[in-house]
Amino acid sequence: MNGISKQPAVGGNAPHRRGIVASLVYVFEQVMPDPFVLSIGLTLVVVLLSSFFAPHGSPATILDSWYEGTFKILGFALQMILILATGYAIAAAPVVQRGLKALAAGVQTPARAALLVFPVVAIAAWLNWGLGLVVGALLSREIARRSRIDFAWLVAGSYSAWSICNSGLSSSIALSQASHGNALNLVEKATGHVVPLSETIFAPFVLIPTVLVVIVMGVIFVLIHPKDDDVAPFVDRPETVEADSHSRDSAPNSFASRIEHSVIGTLLLLALGVGYLGMTWSTKGFELDINATILIFLLIGLALQRTPIAYAESIRRAAAQTGPMLLQYPVYGGIMGIMTGTGLASVIAKAFVAIATPATLAVWSFLSSLIITLLIPSAGGHWAVQGPFVLPAALAIHAPVARTAMGVAMAENVSNMLQPFWAVPVVAIAGIRIQRVMGYTAITFAVSLVIYVLALWLIP
Questions:
Q1: Which of 13, 47, 174, 193 is the most exposed place for a label (fewest CB within 10 A)?
Q2: CA 44-45-46 angle, 5° bins
């Protein structure tokens, strides 16, 4: 696979022929608009498709569905933003920052950068997708400060390593199917049973491709790093994360300052949170859903930051990174509303389900999910749209329910490499334009697509 070829010099000299990766980067830089503008364009596409192909595509239905979806997503949007913010607070803690600096200290070459970034970010993303996003961006900055490595390539590598997050402990599809009474537990509503994590994220057909994507893409990224003459290094700017800064300048010995810097408030919240989790898990058994994940990372962040004011400051800085997500969530909520209300999502899902067999339903579920994910980039919201069609099909033809559900989730991993929704906070933290990054992640899209399809098809 070719790396970035040297760009043509200004003047009359004939330009070099572009390599594959260079061409992809060039196309994304020239064609792809700002993610918010892209979301508006996708809204137009969905409106047109609904008008022509959806069973209920009247103007009144489209408008009502758009309005309902725009505001219906807000509760879920807050959950997702809290996952990112609490993950950011952990990564911003001084002890974690020192760890990132220590990890980056010995990295001088692209090969070493890939060997470090891919496993570290993948593990963080597997534990929590918000933590993985932040660790990837901050680790990339620390490495780029110390070596001559193309920064867009490095950020794209960290984002590619993050791509496995929907196969991990914070997978909203896997967690919701394992959570009794969850509104998105469609399996329980249909069968009366929950799907344990042992049948989803810990199953071989999920674990094996997850590891393979990290290893294979790590090797590929080493091979596609730009040549020395074409490297675009990191340009330093004021730190995104400064653990000791405070927006409020209270008098050092004032009552307000003592309360702000006291660990009493932290200990109180830790006692409440740990007490609740201990009580719940001892009486109902271990259960990890979206809200429990948020609570756990809130408690870890509080413990690492130690004082309430330090934690509050880290969340304020996280808010600056989640701003673009706040802007895009209502727009994508409107898209989800249109696709659900008009029946467009069912048209797409049923087209794939109609040709499926018990052995191939998971693969067709995966392929239809690739398309839907480009329009609905939130795994939970996507599941609410596609789940009601693929699960009844699985039950009707006696296909594995857990495999069918994870086919939807694993496609999220792949489509995220072309859908910029989740890349927005990464590039905001890293300080780089998203278009150049997506040129590299298009390679991850193609490779991981093949790996996941083969896994769903061949691995028991």
A1: 13
A2: 90
Tokens of 148: 């001559």
Q: Which among 341, 424, 343 is positioned nearest to 378, based on CA atoms?
A: 424
Q: At what angle do helices 361-375 and 434-458 cross, to 10 degrees?
A: 160
Q: What is the pTM of this model?
A: 0.79
Do the beta carbons of residue 197 and residue 174 sit within 8 Å? yes
Interval 1-45: pLDDT, tens = 444 444 333 333 333 445 777 777 777 777 777 778 888 998 999
Q: Which residue has the tokens 């949170």?
A: 273
Per-residue model confidence as pLDDT tens digits over 342-378 = 988 778 877 877 888 999 999 999 998 998 888 777 6
φ, ψ of residue 338 in degrees (nearest 5):
-65, -45
- Angle formed at CA 304 by CA 301 and CA 305, multiple of 5 degrees: 80
CA dist 210 → 163, 380, 414 (Å): 9, 20, 11
How big is the CA angle at 8 (ends 4 and 10), to the nearest 5 degrees? 145
Rounded percentage of the chain residues whose pLDDT exceeds 70: 90
Q: Give the relative orientation of helices 151-162 and 129-146 as an angle to the nearest 10 degrees.
A: 160
For residue 249, the model assigns a pLDDT of 52
